[in-house]
Design brief:
The complex is a heterodimer. By secondary structure, chain A is α+β, with helices and mostly antiparallel strands. Chain A contains 5 helices and 4 strands. Chain A starts with a helix and ends with a strand.
Chain lengths: 150, 407
């Protein structure tokens, strides 16, 4: 496999895409949003239980490629028990990572999310990696309409 | 086969001579857009270098030449699809505009509340949305001919769906997502028996086999230049003269007018009535060059190459473990849509791209087809006259790489 391909499909990415974490509807959720990538037809739903300013629980369901599933799965682990502001800040860093690459970022602070760094070499796949995050943001903002990557 | 040497054909397409991602380019996305032979590129360059001027209105030599090239292109298209009269050929931007034109002229004139528009479940969006829009505008009802699990139309359902309220049947000749070749001649026969006019979307058909609109008997036939090895931004609407002549104009301005006062406008005759504004001259010139190129190869030879390569590719893909073809119609051309295990087509496409193999992944602007087969998307390899068995072999090697990554 070429090196940029193995950067994209790192073992952690493949593992999360095959066995996504928190692949469920959160019981008693009080936030929800649907995301859609019209380019490829991918769709996912994020459900949240937010208490005060803190994301106490998060789940996702839907269909998508390995990158979008892994990104969603990793996202649910990363934002649980974080405040809304922390989740927003994390999204900003992940977005920078998948669009520009790891340079200038404290990659260690991103934890497992750092495996998404290979996406920056594949511009066509940035939307796959960021779909779940846009949907999370819509859920936190309480927007009713489905978000789209377009 | 006689008269068709695929290596010589490939040499006519300069874009195919390159390497991508460090490997020879394998282009299997011609259903999205086809590559252009040198003859088309040369024709456009020649037009700009020697003949460029506006048409139908200049008295000078360049305008005469440009008019001759443009109207000559109309005659070339007429010959290509065997229309009776060059006046039956309208230049538009592409298949999509052709269908919108019919929906907004024929449709607005003849279709009202409670009337029915009949399409099929395997249309691409360009032959669904203009009709859906028309139904919203007029109160008409959109009805759909179902499809079976092979991707073939359920012909037993057709007669019942053609009712006394059906005002038009709009059907694709070849499905862009499945490759199914629809029996458009038989559908037209049945529709005409009930007085229903027929539009055929030929965007995926005219490049694969000879098309004869008189033999089909359809009222309208649409196709695009860019899928026919010609330029983008040019396409064709064929319409039988007796259908076109009573229709109101589509857009206003330019050559569609005979005279204007502030009180009254007199419209030009067909085909000019439907070609508002300065037309895409270089597009028409390029499309004519593409058609002459196809005619020189011989569409029967192209069709034979297509059949042979489709058979080879179908067998080769079926040998890939975990691969499932989506669309297995008995009459099929040009397109191989598939799922590989539970690997998402986008992942398949990305890995193939790194091998220099270009395919399309997604819903191919045919979401109802995806819904029927209960898949979010497919991987689609589409073949054209310049593809070879080696291209198919490269695809198969790439698919084994995909399986390796996802093992």
């Amino acid at each position: 496999m070429s090196s940029d391909l193995s950067d994209l499909y790192q073992e952690v990415v493949l593992e999360h895409s095959k066995r996504p974490r928190n692949y469920r509807v959160v019981e008693g959720h009080n936030r929800e949003a649907a995301g859609h990538n019209p380019l490829c037809g991918d769709q996912l739903t994020v459900t949240l239980k937010v208490e005060g300013d803190v994301i106490r629980d998060i789940g996702f369901q839907g269909q998508g490629c390995a990158i979008s599933k892994a990104s969603a799965s990793l996202m649910t682990g990363a934002v649980k028990d974080r405040t809304r502001a922390e989740a927003e800040a994390l999204f900003e860093r992940v977005h920078k990572l998948v669009t520009e690459g790891p340079e200038g970022l404290d990659v260690d602070a991103l934890g497992k999310l750092a495996v998404l760094s290979g996406v920056s070499e594949f511009p066509a796949r940035v939307k796959c990696a960021s779909l779940a995050w846009h949907t999370l943001r819509a859920a936190l903002e309480g927007r009713g309409e489905a978000v789209s990557t377009e | 086969m006689s008269g068709f040497d695929v290596q010589r054909v490939r040499a006519d397409f300069p874009i195919l001579r390159q390497e991508v991602r460090g490997r020879p380019l394998v282009y299997l996305d011609s259903a999205a857009t086809a590559q252009k032979p040198q003859a088309v590129i040369d024709a456009i360059v020649h037009f700009y270098q020697h003949d460029n001027a506006n048409v139908h209105r200049g008295v000078h030599v360049l305008s005469e030449r440009a008019t001759e090239a443009y109207e000559g292109a109309r005659e070339t298209v007429r010959r290509f699809i065997n229309a009776r009269d060059a006046k039956e050929i309208i230049f538009v931007r592409g298949t999509t505009e052709a269908i919108n034109l019919v929906a907004q002229t024929y449709g607005r004139k003849h279709i009202g509340p409670g009337d029915e528009v009949l399409i099929t479940h395997i249309e691409h969006h360009a032959n669904i949305v203009p009709w859906r829009m028309l139904c919203e505008q007029t109160g008409a009802v959109l009805k759909v001919i179902p499809v079976d699990d092979r991707g073939e139309l359920v012909m037993d359902a057709v007669d019942a769906l053609m009712t006394e309220r059906t005002r038009i049947l709009a059907v694709t000749h070849v499905s862009n997502a499945l490759g199914t070749v629809n029996p458009v001649k038989e559908l037209t026969r049945r529709a005409h028996a009930k007085g229903i006019p027929v539009l055929v979307d030929g965007a995926q058909a005219v490049t694969h086999f000879p098309v004869d609109v008189q033999d089909i008997g359809c009222d309208f036939y649409a196709f695009s230049g860019h899928k026919t090895f010609g330029p983008t931004g040019i396409g064709v609407l064929y319409g039988r003269l007796e259908r076109l002549e009573p229709l109101p104009p589509y857009q206003g301005g330019g050559d569609m007018i005979l005279s204007v006062t502030m009180e009254k406008v007199t419209y030009n005759r067909v085909p000019h009535r439907f070609e508002a504004g300065t037309p895409n001259l270089e597009g028409a010139v390029g499309l004519a060059a593409a058609i002459r190129y196809l005619e020189a190869l011989g569409m029967q030879n192209v069709a034979a190459h297509d059949r042979e390569l489709m058979a080879y590719a179908t067998k080769a893909l079926e040998s890939v473990p975990g691969l499932r073809l989506v669309g297995t119609a008995r009459e099929k051309t040009g397109v191989l849509s598939f799922m590989l295990e539970d690997i998402h087509p986008h992942d398949v496409g990305t890995i193939l791209d790194r091998e220099g193999v270009c395919i399309r992944t997604g819903h191919h602007c045919a979401q109802p087809v995806m819904q029927h087969f209960k898949v979010p998307a497919t991987s689609r390899a589409s073949l054209a006259l310049y593809n070879t068995r080696e291209d198919v072999d490269a695809l198969v090697r790439g698919l084994h790489k995909v399986l390796e990554v996802f093992k």
